[in-house]
Write a structure and sequence with these properties.
- Strand 2 and strand 3 form a beta hairpin.
- By secondary structure, the protein is an alpha/beta fold.
- It has 8 helices and 5 strands; from the N terminus they run E-E-E-H-H-H-E-H-E-H-H-H-H.
- It has one domain: 2-Layer Sandwich (Nucleotidyltransferase, domain 5).
- Strands 3-2-1-4-5 form a 5-stranded mixed sheet, sandwiched between helices.
Length: 221
Amino acid sequence: MRELIFDTETTGFDPLSGDRLVEIGLVEMVDRSLTGNHYHVYVNPERDMPEGAFKIHGLSTEFLSGKALFSSIMDEFLEYVGDSSVLVAHNAEFDMKFINWELENAGRPIIHSKRFIDTLAIARTKFPGSPNSLDALCKRFAINNTHRTLHGALLDAEILAEVYIELLGGRQGGMDLSVVKTAAAMGPKKERERRSFPVKEEELEAHREFIKELKDPIWNS
């Protein structure tokens, strides 16, 4: 199964109020394995960038003014997406309303909502009442996102791909059948690379000193 984990950046929150798409990033996953293939493009929104949006993603009016219009990249975008790929996003409704607005504005058919998976909805089901932002999920799954100082569509899509794998049970964990109907539909499991966590000598020494101070520890009972 081919899935495209994606993210967008925009000038604001609502295309019906004049906000526009400014960046799209997609990474390809086949049978829960990243292929290394991706699609990334900046888009000229044909309007100024509000200060609030600029503080989030750092894409200025000047930078985007020289980029292609959506109508110019639309065909290559649709070719990359294809007719049957599943599209995965965090709060997918937000990203899709912008993409579909651009498609509809250009006189093209929109992408049906049935082709989308919302990782935010999955996270809320699995962890009700807990923070489920992308940053919060990275912390929960010990995914390094320290290089994420600003939002960026391709970077966020790459991080989301790791989060998505964990939401589906991880590369070694069992499938969560409330999220995925059958294991066969996802293909064979992929082994996760073994990790090494060496302990520094000073940490070992500090631990030894700590042990000496314990009074009647339970392991001596």
